[in-house]
Design brief:
The structure holds two protein chains of two kinds. By secondary structure, chain A is of the alpha+beta class. Chain A has a single domain, classed as Jelly Rolls (Sandwich), CATH 2.60.120.200. Helix content of chain A is 18%, strand content 27%. Chain A has four helices and 15 strands. In chain A, helix 2 packs antiparallel against helix 4. The longest helix of chain A is centred in the C-terminal third of the chain and has 18 residues. The radius of gyration of chain A is 18 Å and the shape is globular. Chain B is mainly beta. Chain B has one domain. The radius of gyration of chain B is 13 Å and the shape is globular. The chains are: A alpha+beta, B mainly beta. At the A-B interface, strand 2 of A face strand 3 and strand 5 of B. Strand 2 of chain A pairs parallel with strand 3 of chain B, so a sheet runs across the interface.
Chain lengths: 261, 92
């Protein structure tokens, strides 16, 4: 089986050096078929330009939970599982209990990170199952209830909420399903957008606060029924949907191949 | 949700990082603390849970409403019932 057509860029094993470093951090060695599709995903992130635009990337649907906690960008901001959030091989994290469980990457915004660079923010989740309760699956908050880019689900209607400087939240739109690629991005102080699979949700044009550096923490899946297999934090790449389609394509290709293993 | 009922002393003892990638964060309710009962089966927490000694189980109700979305977590958790029988967590 070919590992890639781009052998010239790869190391002795035929894998990207970035992949080799990740393999070395895993508690259990991946089998060769797993290594190949994992390396393809990393190669896709690099060649599409996303690798350099993200601070944190987690692929949680691997063979062991420890493998799924690794930040692909380096041995920092690895995921922490708080109060034993449910995790399944080849599937990822799904909250089957409720608000007392969640995961986080200890990510705190700071100068020098991609997140917030040039006033641009970007976070994404890939959802693998339908949500089943009217609560949140992504939060961005400080310790003083400072919320933003919070997304909720009410039955099968997904209200997108965005609010930075007050405790009031605004419902921005709805979509029939949250399964798949979901992202929130901010390109300027007056432009927050949400992507659900192939489409932009309602653009928000109200003026948003800038936040306080070092005061942003992102918790995930702190709600019953919420789930994800890919997570990322970084810098948005503008309004060209092509960039987001490329990221979505890498994720969906990886997930479809995992299903065959 | 089933939870383990902890005293403040027990909560302080178990709080924090354990294992390779896990953390325990007891939630305060009415001056007591709870953890989801599932943590007892998690190998990441085995050592610290085994050191807890006797604990009680509690049935916890979580209420999430529009009004509760900005409240502290402890404000939307209520204890429905607490088992009267103390149980000892089995040591390996």
């Amino acid at each position: 089986m070919r590992k890639s057509a781009l052998f010239g860029f790869f190391g002795i094993g035929g894998y990207r050096p970035e992949s080799e470093l990740l393999f070395a951090r895993m508690d259990v060695a991946l089998s060769e078929p797993w290594k190949i599709i994992y390396n393809e995903a990393i190669d896709g992130l690099i060649t599409s330009g996303w690798w350099n635009e993200l601070d944190v990337i987690h692929i949680t649907n691997l063979v062991t939970e420890q493998q799924g906690t690794l930040n692909l960008k380096g041995n920092f901001n690895n995921l922490t599982n708080v109060n034993s959030l449910e995790w399944t091989t080849k599937v990822g994290y799904k909250n089957l209990t409720g608000i007392t469980k969640y995961i986080h990457s200890s990510f705190i915004d700071a100068p020098g990170q991609k997140f917030g660079e040039d006033g641009r923010y970007f976070t994404f989740l890939n959802v693998f199952d339908e949500l089943n309760t009217a609560v949140y699956w992504m939060q961005r908050a400080t310790g003083t209830n400072y919320w933003a880019w919070r997304v909720r689900n009410t039955g099968r209607t997904h209200g997108y909420l965005a609010q930075v400087s007050t405790l009031d939240a605004t419902a921005l739109g709805s979509t029939p399903t949250a399964i798949g690629f979901n992202a929130a991005l901010k390109n300027s102080l007056a432009n927050v957008r949400f992507i659900n699979n192939d489409s932009y949700m309602v653009p928000l044009t109200e003026t948003l606060g800038t936040g306080v550096a070092g005061n942003v923490k992102i918790d995930y899946l702190r709600a019953l029924g919420t789930n994800c297999n890919w997570i990322g934090i970084g810098k948005s790449r503008g309004d060209d949907m092509t960039h987001y389609e490329s990221l979505k394509s890498i994720i969906s290709t990886f997930n479809s191949k995992v299903a065959l293993l | 949700m089933k939870g383990i009922f902890l005293t403040k002393e027990q909560a302080d003892k178990v709080k924090g990082r354990h294992g390779k990638y896990s953390e325990l964060e007891p939630i305060e309710i009415n001056k007591d603390f709870i953890l989801p009962a599932d943590v007892m089966d998690d190998p990441e927490h085995r050592e610290v849970i085994n050191d807890l000694g006797d604990c009680k189980f509690a049935e916890i109700e979580v209420t999430v409403t529009e009004e509760s979305k900005t409240k502290e977590l402890k404000e939307i958790l209520t204890v429905k019932s607490v088992s009267e029988v103390k149980i000892s967590i089995e040591k390996p």
